Amino acid sequence: MTTSPELRFRLPDGSEAATRVHTLLNAGYAGRNQADVAAHVAELAELGVPAPAATPALYAVAPYLAQQSGEVPAQHGRTSGEAEWALVITGPEPQDVLLTAACDHTDRALEVHGVAWSKNAGPDVLASTAWRLTEVADRLDELTLRAWAGDIPIQDGSLAELLPPAYWLDFLREHELYAPGVVLLSGTIPMVSGVDQFADRWRVALGDPARGAAIELEYRVRRLPEFGGK
């Protein structure tokens, strides 16, 4: 019996694609301008977040954390999402690589002790619809990425700000990880300063302005009950 989660996606032509996740990877510090990334690493270090050994970074995450859910349980009030795109490999052919919206829900209290730990403390929420990467490959930098913490816009940018899917697909091939069941999240774009990220709802939208289309996901954050004890 397998414990790998199955992800299912609706495609624009009405068909459906599915895969069981056996490898889940989260990119970090994956801005296309690595000078800006270095400045961001320095800012985070001042907040106590340990710097990565190298940038961009890639973190292996437990596969069961890949979820298509409308609810994320949280142990405390310092968790929040990050708008990202995700690659989902469902088969051996180029048309089997899907692009969808994702939200990496991260434990910020744990992040200061280890980024990899924090990413394994919350799920990667993926949308239930997707596009074939081959169908949007000619305009990837024009695709938009937005997020809302509650009803407040907190992230607004484009895929041009992040390392492109081709970079990560080459990485997967180089490390013999290109296979059905692999899911990779892109890393995120900057958040708007001053917005409270610790909201009880998160929404992410991956937009294609050329077609007037978007892939969206939304979930609420549910605080788990607290009990006494050590």
UniProtKB/TrEMBL annotation:
Matches recorded under SUPFAM superfamilies: FAH
Molecular function, one GO term: catalytic activity
Pfam family, one: DUF2848
InterPro entries named in the record: DUF2848 (IPR021269), Fumarylacetoacetase_C_sf (IPR036663)
Protein name: DUF2848 domain-containing protein
